């Protein structure tokens, strides 16, 4: 089992191993997540927010190359 245990001892599914750039993240996932946030009442993102949202999603989804994990 490669994930880490969280709270109740259940193994986490994320972060995933980072295998390099992932087109799903940059081409469709970021705008979809932004749309869900708006649907829940959060403000629409400004153009500079796209990079920050993509970075936050990548940090959750994938092991960072810098951290070596």
Characterization of this structure:
With 69 residues, the chain is mainly alpha-helical. It is 43% helix and 6% strand. The chain contains 2 helices and 2 strands. The protein has helices spanning 23-39, 49-61; strands at residues 5-6, 10-11. The chain has a two-stranded antiparallel ribbon with strand order 1-2. The model has no long low-confidence stretch (mean pLDDT 81).
Oligomeric state of shown chains: single chain
The end-to-end distance, rounded to whole angstroms, is: 15 Å
Uncertain ranges: none
The strand count comes to 2
The rough form would be described as globular
Radius of gyration, in Å, reads: 14 Å
- Topology as H/E string? EEHH
In percent, how helical is the residue content?
Answer: 40-55%
Q: Number of helix segments? A: 2
Task: Tell me the β content.
Answer: 5-15%
Largest sheet: spatial strand order: 1-2
Major sheet, described briefly? Answer: 2 strands, antiparallel
Mean pLDDT: 81
Structural class: mainly alpha
Task: Name a few traits of the molecule.
69 residues; mainly alpha; two-stranded antiparallel ribbon; 2 helices; 6% strand
